Amino acid sequence: MEKATSIALQPIKWLKYIFLVVQLAFIVFIVHRYAIENNAFFTIMIFISVGFMVHYFIPIQHRMFSFGLLSMAGTAVIMGWESSLWIFSIVAVILLICRSGLKFSYKVGLILAGSGVLAVFRADIMPFYGPEAIWPILGSMLMFRLITFMYDLKHAKKIPTFGQSVAYFFMLPNVVFPLFPVVDFTNFTRSHYNGERHKIYQVGVDWITRGIIHLLIYRIVYYYMAISPSDVASPSDLMQYLSSNFLLYLRVSGLFHIIVGCLHLFGFNLQETHHLYYLSASFTDFWRRINIYWKDFMMKVFYYPIFFRLKSLGMTKAIVISTIIVFFLTLAFHSYQWFWLRGQFPIIWQDAVFWGILGCLVIINSLWELKKGKGQNLAAKVWSVKSSVIYSTKVLLTFTCICTLWSLWSAESWLGWLSMFKVLGQLTYSEIFFALAIFAGYLICGYLLQIWTRKRIAGGNYKGATDRRPYTTVCLLVLMSVMSIGEVYTKFGPDIANTIATMRAGKLSKLDTQALEKGYYEELVRVNRFNSQLWEVYMKKPAEWLQNPGADLKYYTGDFMQYELLKSTSSSTQYGLMTTNQWGMRDQEYPLTAKPNTLRIILLGASIETGWGVEDDETFEGMLESELNQLLSKGSKNTIEILNLSAPGYKPLQQLPVLEKAQKFHPNMIYYAASGREMMRAASFLQESVKNAVDIPYPGLRDIVSKANITADMDATVMEKALMPYREELLAWLYNELAIKAKNMRCKLVWFLVPGVEGGDWETTAEQSTELARQAGFEILNLHNVYQGYTVNDIALAEWDKHPNKLGHRLLMDGLFKEITGSPERYLGMKISD
C-alpha cells in the first residue's frame, strides 16, 4: 500500500490528464459514430469517461471503494433501480456469507445451496417474481468470479476488504457485457495502482482503441467474408469459409480489450486478455495466447492442484490426466455459462468434438515440449533463414488446423461439414501454383517481419516504441473520427464509402439475418456463441421470443400448404389480440361472393402481412382497405375488399396452394407480397418438404428435386448446397405458375416487395426477384423507400424482432396508398372516380 500511495500521490499532471480526457472524448465520439455494440455501451462509455475525470482526483485510499460505488451506479443506470436492487441484494447476501466467520466448508455449502435455488429460478422450474433481465448480468458477475474469489479467500492470509469485494463483483463495464473475461481476484487487487498511474491510464486508452479496431475489422469480415457451408463451391470458397469463420473471433478479443482497457482507467494494471493468437506456432502456444484469463483461471483453480496431486505418478501421466480434466471442465463450463446467460444447458456434439480434439492436440504438444525441453526458446536460438521459415510454417499450419477445427465447432452437422471438403477434388494446376506462390510470399514477409522485430528490440528501440504509443493512438482515434463523417468518406469513391458505411453499422450479416428469420418459426438448436452478433441478440431476447407467432391460431392441413389459420378464433399475444374470421383470415368478415361493384383483392404474404406485432385494427392491409374505400366514397359507387390470406411463416411456394384455395372467393386482383430473400426461402421450403417426405403435387417442383438429386435421408446442409444452383429456376417456376393460375382466374397480378426495417442482404437479392416477377407478367409496385427518414428503433418491434411495429405498418400503408392511387388503372384495374 505504501508503494501504491507514493505513486498515486504524485503531483497532478494537468497536461497528461487533459491529454487522456481528450482521447476519451474521441473514443466516446467513435463509439457513437460507429454504433459500437449498442446504446447501452455508448451510455456506459460516457459514464466511464466522466467517472474517470472525477476518479483521477480521489485519494488513493478511497479509490477501490469509489470504483465499486461507481460500478454499482453504472449498473443502476443501465438496468434500472428495480433490477439493480435485486442484483445488489443477491450479491450482498453472497458477500455476507463469504465474509462471515463460518468455516470455509460451511461457506461453500451455503453458497452451493443458494446457487442451487437461483438455478431453479433461472431454469423456470419455480416462478421468479423479480425481473428476468437480471439473470444474464447476475450470472456474468457470479458464475466464474465467485469460484476464483472463494479459491483466493481460502488461500488468503486475510479477508479482503469490503471495498475490494464490491469493486470485484460489480466491476465496470460488466453491466453491458455479459460475456466478460474471468478476471482473477488476486490479480485484480494486486494490480491496483502497481505502477505509474498515467502509464496505466494510457495503456487503458490504447487497449480500448485496439479493441475498437478489432471490432471494425470484425465487421468487414462479418459482412463481406463470412459465408455459409452451402455457399462453398470451390477451393477458394473453402479457404474463405475456414479463415473468415475463425477471424470472426476478433469480436471477442475486441470486446475483451475494451473491457480490460476500461479497468485500466481506474488503476487496475491487468495483463492483456489476448496476445497475437493468430500467430500461434503450436497448439500449446495457441492455448496460452487466446483468452489468457480463461487459461489462467483453469490452470490456477484446477490444473495445478490436480497436477501436483498426481505428480507422484510421473510427469507424463500427471500432464495428460490434468489436461484432460481441464478441457472436460472447459466443455462443461461453456454450457454452464450458457445456462446462466440464457437459462438453457446445451450439450451438443460440436462442443464436445472441438474441446476434445483441441485438448488432445495440446496434450501431444505439451509432451513434445516436455521431451524437447522448454528452455529452447526462440530468443536463445541463432536466428537464420531456416529457423525463420520453420517458425513461419508452424504458424501457418497451426492457423490452418485451428481454422479447420473452428469450422467444425460452428458446423450444423457432421455431414454438412464434410461435404465442403469435396471441392478440394476440383483443384486445378493454376490454383495449386497460385497457392504455392502465396505461401512463398508469406514466408518472405514472415522472415522480414521477424528480422525487423528482432533488430528493433535488440537495438534498444522497444522503449521508444512504447513512448510513441500514445501519439499512435491519437492518430488512430483522429483518423477513425474523421472517416466516420459522411462528407469525408464519400469523397473516396463508392467502394471505400460503402465499406466505411458498413463499418459504421451494427446490424446483422446475411447469414445471421437468415438464422434470426429461421428462429421466428422454430427453436434454434444452437447459436454461434462467440463468432457473431446474433449471440448478443439471442441473449437479450425474452424467453418466449422463439414461440411461433400465432402458433395457437394454426391447424395443419396435411398437404403441401402445411397449415392454415384457424377459423373464427382469437389469440392473445404480447402485442394484443390476433383474431381470425370465418374463413381463417386475420381480417374482417366477408361473404363468399362479393357484392356488386366490389373489387376483390387477394393478398398473399407471411407474418408481416398477417400483422404480427400489431393489433387487429393496425395492420397495413386493414388500414389500406379503409383508406381506399374512404377515397372511393367521394366520387364512385365502387368498393374494395382486400382479403388477407397471409399466415405467419408462409414461404413463397406455399402461396401456390393458398391461391388455389382462394379461387372460391372469385377475386379480381392478386397482390403478392414478397420478401427480400425469395429464392432462399423458396429453396428452404422445398428442402424441408423433401426432408419431411411431404407429397409434392407439382411436376415442375418434382423435376427440380430430381435435377438437384436430393432425398429425405440426406443431411440438411448437403441438401441446401445441392439446391443452390436451382434457386433462380425455382422462383421463376413459382412466379410463372402463379401467373398461369391468375390468368385462368381472370385476375390481374401485382407484385411488391415489403422492405426490411433495416438495410441488409434483402436489398441485394431483391433486384433479381423483381426481374423474375416482371418477366412472369406481374405489375411491379415499388415500396423501397417507405421507411426513409426513420431509424430501425423507430419502426422495429425490438432488437431481436424485426417485424414492423404500428408506425411501420402505417408507413407501409402510406406507401401502398400513394403508389396505388398514383396509378389506379395499373394497380386496381379501374379509375378512382367515375
Automatic annotation (TrEMBL):
Membrane-spanning residues: 14-32, 39-58, 64-97, 104-121, 165-183, 207-225, 246-266, 318-341, 347-368, 389-409, 429-449, 470-489
InterPro entries listed in its UniProt record: SGNH_hydro_sf
Entry keyword annotation includes Protein biosynthesis: no
Gene Ontology MF: a single term: hydrolase activity, acting on ester bonds
Keywords for this protein: Membrane, Transmembrane, Transmembrane helix
Top-level taxonomic group: Bacteria
Name used for this protein in its record: Uncharacterized protein
